[in-house]
């Protein structure tokens, strides 16, 4: 795909092109980029919206769930008539209307160990918008093995966190969270509750991290975890270092086979 910008694209992206930190080269990098959004729900819908609006050339939307009425207060790409439709298809349709310059491809499957490499193949960045620790570790381990950067976010109640990963350079998700939390930390939002504005904030921050990773503009949250308590407006930024014994990116990974 050519990275040259058309006249209509220059007009569409004019408000970001005028930023002193931005450039035509940065915009062209977004146009040439491919992003995979895993989970098109509370985090994935705002994240995908702002990636499409910003001009990321290809968005692969991975989600095997159907739209439910209870989703609509926090998943803004899905509308009332979409109830019962596949989330990936619903989201792709809206993104195609928002920005026809972007290729939004729906994949109506649940990511697992059998399809993860195929779904993430060729990505320039993966947005982990999943809702289980098992899937987060699977995405992290696969991206570390394939050298694909990750923008990851998670939300529970009024709190959330964001971090970015450059495999081989910065701490990965397993470095930050080497042990899965107890089962009560993974209760679904039907039990813990959710406010749409909170998931929207985290999803937008996740999109911004992906844009920084793709464009080379700004400093991504690599080696750092940003934790937000949006009920009280508190912000914590923790530094995370790579672990030599990490099962995903540690020194021994990939060295066990002698050929």
Tell me what you see in this structure.
The structure is a single chain. By secondary structure, the protein is an alpha/beta fold. The chain has one domain: 3-Layer(aba) Sandwich (Rossmann fold), CATH 3.40.50.720. The protein has 10 helices and 8 strands. It has helices at 7-12, 14-17, 24-31, 44-54, 87-98, 116-120, 133-146, 173-176, 189-192, 196-215, and strands at residues 34-38, 58-62, 103-107, 125-128, 150-156, 159-165, 224-229, 234-239. The chain has an 8-stranded mixed sheet with strand order 3-2-1-4-5-6-7-8, sandwiched between helices. It is globular. 44% of the residues are buried.
List the helices and strands and how they pair.
Elements: H1 7-12, H2 14-17, H3 24-31, E1 34-38, H4 44-54, E2 58-62, H5 87-98, E3 103-107, H6 116-120, E4 125-128, H7 133-146, E5 150-156, E6 159-165, H8 173-176, H9 189-192, H10 196-215, E7 224-229, E8 234-239
Parallel strand pairs: 1-2, 1-4, 2-3, 4-5
Antiparallel strand pairs: 5-6, 6-7, 7-8
Helix pairs in contact: 4-10
* Helix share bin: 25-40%
Low-pLDDT residue spans: 255-259
- CATH fold topology: Rossmann fold
Q: How much is the average pLDDT?
A: 94
Computed structural class: alpha/beta
* Count of distinct structural domains: 1
Q: Separation of termini?
A: 37 Å
> What is the CATH homology-level superfamily?
NAD(P)-binding Rossmann-like Domain
Oligomeric state, counting identical vs distinct chains: single chain
